[in-house]
Amino acid sequence: MRAMHGHTKVAARQVATAFDLSGFTSACDLGGSTGALAYELARQYPGLKVTIFDLPEVIEDAVFFKPHGPEAGQVSFVPGDFFRDTLPEADLYILSKILHNWPDDKVHQLLSRISRSCKPGGGLLVAEQLLDEDKCRPLPALMMSLTMTVLFQGRERSLSEYRSLLQAHGFTDVRAVRTGSTSDAVLATRA
């Protein structure tokens, strides 16, 4: 958890500010672990309430990472399994370093669940390393993709692959920002 917390914190500000998210009032960070990205979103958007939805054993330890600033009051934790349990309601769903962990069938299962929960006009923010369209660059994303394939049968994807995946699940206006950090940002709107 400490490693993932540190890795997420490195890119949290860039991901949180890659798009103007001020139109959203509630967010649900699926698999949000310690809340590193959630707390940064709360700092950047004082009107945003963020729910972290993660396994009970993860949430139990997340208390050790809670900041002392005012943003702490905007973030709450709900235990659950995003493949089995009902997802909390939100205007914006967040998947940070989640999709690259899973093979395509599980990715489709998760995106289908999010699509059913997300109301029209709602959003989905994905934070992952984007591969170029030739899938040979940038080197850090390529190395991460190889690692995820060997360890979990997952992988990093290009923007066109994310666009196809998200559109297949009812999301439109798929846009991306390369943050220059350890995670890029993809934002899509539920049709």
UniProtKB/TrEMBL annotation:
Record key words, sorted: Melatonin biosynthesis, Methyltransferase, S-adenosyl-L-methionine, Transferase
Enzyme Commission code(s) on record: 2.1.1.4
Pathway(s) served: Aromatic compound metabolism; melatonin biosynthesis; melatonin from serotonin: step 1/2
GO molecular function: acetylserotonin O-methyltransferase activity
Domain O-methyltransferase C-terminal: residue ranges: 1-171
Pfam families: Methyltransf_2
GO biological process: melatonin biosynthetic process; methylation
Class in the EC hierarchy, top level: transferase
Role description: Catalyzes the transfer of a methyl group onto N-acetylserotonin, producing melatonin (N-acetyl-5-methoxytryptamine).
Protein name (Swiss-Prot/TrEMBL): Acetylserotonin O-methyltransferase
